[in-house]
Each structure stands twice: as C-alpha cells, then as structure tokens.
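Annex B. Sample input.
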Amino acid sequence: MIAGPKIQCRKIEVQGAKSGKYFEYPEVQKEGNDFFCSADFNKRILSKVSACVGVGIYSVRLHFDDGSQSPVLGSRTELTAGLELGTDPVTQIGIRAWKENYVQTLVVNQANRKGSVTLESQSNNGDMKEFKLASGERIVGIHGYLDPNGDLRGFGFIVVGK
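Annex B, continued. Sample output.
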C-alpha cells in the first residue's frame, strides 16, 4: 500500500520472459483499471540507465535528475554499460527481446537528440517493439521478472504524466 499522495501511472508491457519472480520499482497500486505510484515520482526525470550486459541485459539501475536512483534490479552488480540521457525528455523507447528470453537491446529516442542511444547485449536477437511516450510523459520506473539466478529475464517501464 502506498503511503501519502499518489499519482496515476501506466506500465509499458514487459518484453522478454514473463515468468519468474515479479518486481516493480516504484511500488505500483492498482485501483479499478488504473495504476498509481507515489507522488514523489511526479517530477523525476530519467537521466541515466546503468546495466550489466552479457548475452542479455542481466541487471539495471535507473538514475534520476534529482540524484535518486532505483535499486539494482537483477543480481549482477557490475554495472559497466549504460545510457547517458541528461534531462532531455524521452519520446520513444524500443525493447528487443529474444522470444520469451532475455531483453537484448534497449533503444531510447529523445526530444532534442538526433538519432537514438542504444544499450546492446552481445547477442542482438529478436524483434524490436517500440513504445511512444505522449507529450509530458516520463519514465519513472521499471517492472518485470527475474529468473531463479536473479537475472532480469523480461522488463517494461513505468510512466507518469500526460
């Protein structure tokens, strides 16, 4: 249960495996057909994604413009890869997953950046699925599944604002 003020959010569909131990950051509460998270996330802007990458994207940590960050999601803490985003709004995110397996690639498009920034695994298999963010929407979290070893198997993002 979320204590204090809440804001409405939405979940971008998990790509990759949809089984194992479910996680979400921040905590999301469902009320009827709507999702809510803490109002603390109302103004945060995703500024960086750190990751442990091998055959797939094994672990991630989200960093925000206010200095806050998510916990490491996944058991591998050697986060040597990443995406530097600054405070330029994310307009679209692409997630490539190999069937019901690891997420292979994360592609981010931003409002004021020509081209995209990409985080790729060693094996770049699968189909890319792209998700557009409406004007004013921001990525504030992540949800998905961990395998028995604690590695990320599939994930999607949590978005606020419109």
